[in-house]
Amino acid sequence: MVDPSHMQAALALARRGLGQCWPNPAVGCVIVRDGRVVGRAVTAPGGRPHAETLALAMAGAAARGATVYVTLEPCCHHGRTPPCTGALIAAGVARVVVAAQDCDPRVNGQGLARLRAAGIATEVGLLGEAAAEVNAGFFTRIRTGRPLVTLKLASTLDGRIATAGGESRWVTGAAARRAAHALRGRHDAIMVGVGTVLTDDPDLTCRLPGFRTTKLVRIVADSHLRTPLTSRLVVTAGVTPTWLLARPGADAARGRALSDAGVTVLAVAPAASGEGLGVDLAAALRLLGQRGITRLLVEGGAQLAAALLRADHVDRLAWFHAPAVMGADGWPAAQAFGIAELAAMPRFVRAATRPVGEDVLTELRRAA
């Protein structure tokens, strides 16, 4: 009999891998024999070894005749690692219960078919919706070529992120800031506009000890390479991956200096006239997808937020609201982006709301 609690445990393992397994999906695997868990694992940082291989190694001989609960269909192709279907067949497992089918065209049902052809019973769909949400970033990259984009905002109740004079530290409280760092920790990369770098000189790291074992990729939309060589991002680029998205032909000497400091400068087509950001966001997101990014957290500023919303590139919103009102002389969370009619507004559906200290976090998803 299938036990949903084992798939719940596999999903909990998969969530631990979010932000650390790219370009591969975060997968959890639990192996059960005679009602006892004999193996459990999450895909290793960097995407290999896969969860099934690690769980099988833990189970050893006890895997023979066991039931395997795995959050995503086992792979059946040779990449940097041998196919997981082969490992499962060789281990002699009796049944494989899969939460979600893999939409990668190299798999997409073929892994399940290979297991069935070897005489292994298979079931698909147990807690499938939860599994699809865990791997929404991977699925988005496979289907659209770009990462899943989450826009994080921290504002007053009336949507202001800074005073007219630019003071923004801190609109929200310490608990909200800790929650924001946890949000960073569950993403592959974090992106800001160059205006945020010039104003705040941020670190853009996950500052929760032990939360993740890999470095968060830091990305700046910086069409003319204005990021200072003395900024924290550049000074620490040798130890924390830092990518700048710049227009082709941007200051070559400055580009070399940034590269010498450890920064990766990526050429992106310029934005269409009137878009204001400097680089074509659709092209930039496709480039990030090609480089393996599956989950991208965008933290500002207001111009970047407006450009993403205008282009309909925001899949999720994580909005921290402070119980305060600043008024119209404060800086808005998103700059004007040409909305003249209510029907043209980007629409989202509330997924969750919870208090975070004195503030409130509302999580939203793109409306269908």
Outline the structure in words:
The protein is of the alpha/beta class and 368 residues long. 29% of the residues lie in helices and 24% in strands. The protein is built from twelve helices and 16 strands. Helix 4 links the parallel strand 4 and strand 5. The radius of gyration is 22 Å and the shape is globular. 47% of the residues are buried.
Secondary structure elements and pairings:
Blueprint: H1 4-16, E1 28-33, E2 36-42, H2 51-59, E3 67-72, H3 84-91, E4 95-100, H4 110-117, E5 121-124, H5 128-134, H6 136-144, E6 148-155, E7 160-162, H7 174-185, E8 189-193, H8 194-200, E9 217-221, H9 232-235, E10 242-246, H10 252-260, E11 264-267, H11 281-290, E12 295-300, H12 302-310, E13 316-321, E14 331-332, E15 348-356, E16 359-366
Parallel strand pairs: 3-4, 4-5, 6-12, 6-13, 8-9, 8-12, 9-10, 10-11
Antiparallel strand pairs: 1-2, 1-3, 7-14, 13-16, 15-16
Helix pairs in contact: 3-4
Mean pLDDT: 94
Gross morphology is globular
Q: SSE order, as H and E?
A: HEEHEHEHEHHEEHEHEHEHEHEHEEEE
Strand order of the largest sheet: 11-10-9-8-12-6-13-16-15
Kindly estimate the percentage of residues that lie in beta strands according to DSSP.
Answer: 15-25%
Count helical runs: 12
Based on secondary structure, the structural category is alpha/beta
Largest sheet: 9 strands, mixed
The Rg value, from CA coordinates, equals 22 Å
Distance between the termini: 36 Å
E-strand count: 16
Instruction: Work out the helicity level.
Output: 25-40%
Regions with little confidence, pLDDT below 50 for 5+ residues: none
